[in-house]
Each structure stands twice: as structure tokens, then as C-alpha cells.
Amino acid sequence: MKFIEGCFFDGVTPVSIDAQLEFDERGATLTAGNHSGYYTSSQMRVTPRIAAGQRFIYLPNGAQFLCEDQDFLDTLPQDSPSEGIVAWLESRIKVAIGSVILVVLTLLAGYFYGFPLFAEKVVQRIPMETEYALGEQILSWFDERKWTGPTELEYETRDKISQGFNRLSADLPFSDYYRLEFRHGTFFGPNAFALPGGIIVVTDELLETAETIDEVFAVLAHEIGHVELRHNMRSILQNSVVAAGAAAVTSDAATLSVAVAGLPVIIAQRKYSRRFETEADTFAFRLLTESGISPEAFGSIMKRLGEDDEDTPTGFNYLSTHPITKERIQRAREAASEFEATP
Description:
By secondary structure, the chain is an alpha+beta fold. Helix 6 (213-228) crosses helix 10. It has helices at 84-90, 93-123, 128-144, 155-169, 204-209, 213-228, 231-250, 253-261, 263-269, 274-290, 296-308, 318-321, 326-341; strands spanning 2-9, 17-23, 27-32, 35-40, 45-46, 55-58, 64-67, 149-150, 179-184, 192-194, 199-203. Strand 3 (27-32) and strand 4 form a beta hairpin. It is elongated and about 100 Å long.
């Protein structure tokens, strides 16, 4: 005979009663205050083991018997037999830690390798018209919230830069979509950035920082590189997959909603990956060389922006969205040397 002490729930009221189950070869006799009865083993189901927690024995008509976990319960019919492996895993801390590490490594591999490849493939199927419409919405969002203001540049200056910009982008695959926008960098300070679809914004403050018009064209060539290589949409897709993954893991759909609703802020604050910056730099150096402009201009303005960075008040300057590195300046100088050596 086997006796188990516990609590009985009759399935009608939420109040428990001290009870006892007395087991024989066929089943068990319940003694619980005014409640009593005999249940065969086939009428009982035991809930899975969860660490050292208590377990329920389900009885007919919704009744339940709650008791401490013990090995004897494993000999009774189980409510979910497949949970045995789960209970085994839960009781082994090393397995749990190893599983967490495996999940983290898998997520990191996906973030650094899987997501970029996914975004690169998918972006090829997104029409440029769709991307352009998104860029217009983001620029309107900036203007409406006065993150950008009307330019204060003279028409002659804007016209000269626009003509040079048109020459830079004239023979490129997405030439029909390019649009250069001049803005006062109310929030952005000295900056230039490419929005989805080929809209490139350059601020008055950046043009004031440039000492030559070639330096302006060098920055614009870099932004053109981001457009031609679809870096904006690839970044958006990668971030969306991350947000979707976080929503799935946390069961919080608001995570994805915030990511979508905050897209303009993400675009404003985002830093291109090191790979994207290198790709855009390489593209810009080639484009400048083909246009008869030395890539030295890019290295010069990047160096000056680095020196002026501490004097920038608030907001985002060019370096906050395009991190400066000595390697990038060095690559610009190497490209300039090749340009000068070209007959």
C-alpha cells in the first residue's frame, strides 16, 4: 500500500481540502473530508515534473489532487509523457546554460551573416518606386517636425552643386531616381545622408564646412554609393528581421510596431555597418576618379569633420551617422595616389 498526502479540489469550488490517496494494485481510495471515492489508475493523469514543483493528479469530473513530487507518481499514467525529456533538461543547469549559449551564438550568426544575405536577396525584388515613396515620407517627417529647415544657401551655390551632382549620377543605374535636397541642418548639423529611393539631403552646415566644391562632390559621391548599393533598404530589412525576431522571442508585438513606427528616427540615427561604409567609399572613389575629381577631397573633408566634431553642439553631425576612421582617410589618400598616377 502507498499513501500520499495532499490537497483535494472538487472541480466546483476553488477551496482545497486536506486529503489522502491510498493506492493499491488497481487504483487509489480518496479520503478528503466529506469527499471520498475510488479511482482506477486508468482514470488518473499526472502532470509533468517541473523542477521540484508540486504535481497534480487529474481525477474524473474535473477534480484534482495536488501533492509534492515523488518518484512514485512516474508509475501512474502521465498527462504528457513527452515532457519527461523536458523535465530532465530543466534539472540540469549545465544543459540549460549550454542551450542559452547555443541560442545566443545562433542569433549572432544570423545577425552577422544570415540577415545580411537575406536582405541582399530580398532588396533586389523591391521596386525602386516603392523605396522612393518611403524616402519622400521620411523627408516630409523631418520637415514637419523641424528636424530640417529651409536652406539659406544662395541660388547660384545650389545650382552649381546640383549641376555637378547631376553629372556624377548621370550614367548610373538609378539615375532617374536621384533628387538632391538642400536643407538647414536644424537637428542634424553638418551632415549629408541618403534616404531610401535616391533622395540625398545635404545641409547648409556641411557646405559651410567644405573648403572646396570637390569636397562637397566627394561626400555626395559617397551618398550615391549608398543609394546604388541599396544600403538603406538592406539596413531596414535587417532591422525589421531583428525586430520580428525580438517580438517572437518576447511575445511582444509592440516591439515590431515601435520599430516600424519609429522608422524615420532609425534612419536618422542609424550608423551604416563597417562593410557598407567601405563599399560606399570604394564606389565613391571610383566615381570621383571617373569624373576627374581626386579622392583626396573625401579624405580632406573627413579629416576636417573629425577635427570639428567636438565643436558641434547638439544633434547628429556627419560623423554620428558615418563613423570616421583613420583607415577610411588612408584609403582615400591611396585612391588619390592612383588617380594622380593615372596618365
